[in-house]
Amino acid sequence: MNDILNRKTKIDVKTMDQIPAGAVILKLISGSMDLPLKKAGDFIIEKAAEETTVTFYAGEKLNADSWRAAGGKMAGWLKSVTPETAWLDLAEITEKPARANLLEGILLGAFEFDRYKKENSGGKDAVLAVPSIFAALVEERRVVCEAVNMARDWAHEPASVINPETLSERIKLLAETYGLKCRVLEEQELVQMGAGAITAVGQGSKTPSRMIVLEYAGTKKTKPVVLVGKAITFDSGGYSIKPSDSMVGMKYDKCGAMAVLGVMRAAAELRYETPIVGVICAAENMLSEKSYRPDDILHTLSGLTVEVISTDAEGRLVLADGLTYAQQQFEPAALIDLATLTGGCVVAYGHVRAGVLSNNTDLFESLFESGEKTWERIWRLPHDDDYAELIKSPDADIKNSGGRWGSPVTGGIFLKQFVKDEVPWAHLDIAGVADSDKASAYSVPGATGFGVRLLLDWLKTR
Fold first, then answer.
1. Is 316 a catalytic residue?
2. Taking the model in full, what pTM does it have?
3. Domain tally, the chain
């Protein structure tokens, strides 16, 4: 159980009343510097008779992410050297947000995914000690970062390990561990209730679709925030098959749902006030004689019919039924979906920001503020009614692809058709930020866990 829910990292952060004997002293400085510290992340090691000091440079021009990045650089050094004990005096950093961000960088930077390597990162951990007066801060950041690291860990798992069925079993374990209510809707029940979009996407796979619903009661009796996550455990493109190179990395097509699970876990552990519901829309988009096809017309849970133009535009189909279910079963105070939805969003925003299409300016602006604080940054997409013309179908109510032009927008506009106007809603297209081929200061190559810290901050400040 522990290995599934808590992937072990190589840094153990502890609180102590005084500097441990023989500890390496870690320092952090910023501002204009002369050589040898030239760029952020540089460090120097000074050995004296009784102690060794490692000084890291946070940079000259600091932004909201500089301390987090500095923490990631510290984590990299700690993982490579694994000193028996290192000491970091957080009191020397006077700003509270900077302390929290530095700890985040260390805890996120400690993550590795090496489960399937013969020589993995077994062996001793580095111990990082900080003053005991920061115990509450350490614990809070640990909870958040463990949730992010779980989201990363599960996202890294290949389709041979995580499919809709095995994901359901993992989520049941998550629910049992953190006191969440869990319901798994299997294919037969989904068919009977009329969820013809999510079941169509998964019908070509030997592992049928699932919709998994998690509920966190919160500490106040208010309307819940409902989070809907796309969990395509592998995406071949179906009959609109992807080129072979484009299939590599499709295990990350479940990152939206993994972020939702991370949020549910941390919110429950930290006892957030707001009730939260997580709806996980899980399917495997494969080719077989049972697969859905272009030209098929699907009957969705909402009653709308959808003409299939591309079987590779499957994420919006599973989300359509998930968004409908969320509104039928709950009365959302806000409805937010996360999905690696369109390559067009990567073209538009690169690997810097997620695209957001929302019907509510206040909701978007509050999410934007949390994104700037957590450095999980977003930018708004247009939602003009004109774009809906691009997804009109001659034979059904709508079609699942509006073509190449404006694809991130039309993907979001498609989802908008399944959301009531009076429900505050935001769609986060995280295709460009959910995973990366390159390491960052506090993330190894692969899944980033994008969205967990953003939504936790947003929920906390609601």
1. yes
2. 0.97
3. 2
